[in-house]
Design goal:
- By secondary structure, the protein is α+β, with helices and mostly antiparallel strands.
- It has a domain at 44-84.
- It is 58% helix and 14% strand.
- It has 3 helices and 6 strands, in the order H-H-E-E-E-E-E-E-H.
- The strands form 3 sheets. Strands 1-4 form a two-stranded antiparallel sheet. The chain has a two-stranded antiparallel sheet with strand order 2-3. A two-stranded antiparallel ribbon has the order 5-6.
- Strand 2 and strand 3 form a beta hairpin.
- The chain is elongated.
- The termini are far apart.
- The mean pLDDT is 77.
Length: 194
């Protein structure tokens, strides 16, 4: 009989401990774990990555008497694997607490990283636009300079022709002046004889 009273005594003490909450704490029923529907297979396992490569005709390296025709080779680049990334936020009861499968700090870090990446991308796009605008402006300036250079070459050619004409005119002028002097000398000499 004494053996029966000892377990009953422990049961009574345990019942009083569970019924009386600690002072200052409200008694609340622990949350129940919710049933989670199984996600589709595409969310559970990743698809394998297969690349197809074209191989041209070649001679077998182990037997030079064998020729392989051109064909396609499929190569498994990445096998399928378990998808461990959280797809939805689910509450999972873990002992006395509840844990969410999507960690809010990690999501905040990802969101901050996405914002930073978007800012960098917009900076790159603005820089690319500025470069394109400067490139088109430089192209227009280069065309103007080429046009001015062509005009300058034409003007230089005209100047060289004008210099040649001036040289010829001076030569002609000198020749005429010499003839005029000779003519004057003849007339002056002719008048002096008379």
């Amino acid at each position: 009989m004494k053996l029966l009273l000892i377990p009953l005594g422990f049961a009574a003490v345990a019942a009083t401990m569970q019924a009386a909450p600690a002072p200052g704490l409200a008694s609340a029923a622990p949350p129940r774990a919710q049933a989670v529907a199984a996600p589709p297979e595409s969310q559970v396992i990743t698809q394998p990555v297969v690349h197809s490569y074209f191989v041209g005709a070649f001679i077998d390296p182990s037997d030079p008497n064998v020729r392989h025709h051109a064909h396609v080779v499929d190569r498994l680049e990445q096998p399928s694997s378990w998808n461990l990334w959280p797809t939805t936020v689910e509450a999972v009861r873990l002992g006395p607490g509840v844990r969410y499968t999507s960690d809010p700090p990690l999501d905040a870090a990802r969101a901050a990283q996405d914002v930073r990446l978007a800012a960098v991308e917009s900076e790159h796009q603005a820089y690319a636009q500025r470069l394109a605008a400067e490139s088109s402006e430089m192209t227009a300036r280069l065309k103007d300079m080429e046009k001015q250079l062509a005009e300058l070459k034409s003007a230089n050619e005209q100047l060289a022709q004008a210099k040649k004409q001036i040289r010829k005119l001076r030569e002609t002028q000198e020749t005429l002046l010499e003839e005029l002097k000779k003519e004057k000398a003849k007339r002056h000499g002719f008048l002096a004889h008379d």
